[in-house]
């Protein structure tokens, strides 16, 4: 599938506000959404839920954040991976190039 076909086919899925509205229209409960970029507080992705249930401050202070796991690659590495995906490499060579790139990044990160 080329980029133009992919973009045309999956463009509606990229409209996250539209997808959330469609879900909200399809269910009887309330749908809450938040932009991941706004989750900069001490409780990360749990923050909107903690706020929604109005957890009292004395309980919030007892929460211990879970350490970060499964963090994605930095933006520079994402650009390199995207370039590989758009290359004309065979599946085998593409997988090897990605593994090499990710391995080097992991070794550089410790």
Tertiary shape: flat
Strand content: under 5%
Summarize model confidence as the mean pLDDT: 88
Low-pLDDT runs: none
Helical content band: 55-70%
SSE succession = HHHHHH
Count of alpha and pi helical runs: 6
Q: Work out the radius of gyration.
A: 20 Å
Secondary structure category? mainly alpha
Ends distance: 37 Å
Number of strands: 0
Largest sheet report: none
Structure description:
- This protein has 110 residues and is mainly α.
- It contains six helices and no strands.
- It is flat and about 55 Å long.
- The protein starts with a helix and ends with a helix.
In short:
This protein has 110 residues and is mostly helical. 56% of the residues lie in helices and 0% in strands. It is built from 6 helices and no strands.
Task: Lay out the secondary structure.
Blueprint: H1 3-14, H2 16-26, H3 47-52, H4 57-60, H5 75-85, H6 91-108
What descriptors fit this protein?
mainly alpha, flat, 110 residues
